[in-house]
Amino acid sequence: xxxxxxxxxxxxxxxxxxxxxxxxxxxxxxxxxxxxxxxxxxxxxxxxxxxxxxxxxxxxxxxxxxxxxxxxxxxxxxxxxxxxxxxxxxxxxxxxxxxxxxxxxxxxxxxxxxxxxxxx
Length: 120
Description:
Layout: H1 2-23, H2 30-44, H3 53-61, H4 63-66, H5 68-76, H6 78-81, H7 85-119
């Protein structure tokens, strides 16, 4: 029963994300709205971590299975996608490197500021 309650909470927040998507005219996916809502609820204490922890862990554990339909779709669309393989590959590599560099720099900056705050 505990797991059903946790899944229900997560589904309810996902539903709120869907509602926000249709109410707010921005090109933001409903899942992002849902994650932001869940984050705010967890940070403010409206929802306790224990209320969604086990269901969240389960969903993360089965996440790779959720990519199978997308992979099958890519394989079925190979005739259309093969012409875009090189441009998509270049964009992917450039984006990956850019995100890694930005994340590394930001992490270093945060760590430096924490060290400075601890020394004061």
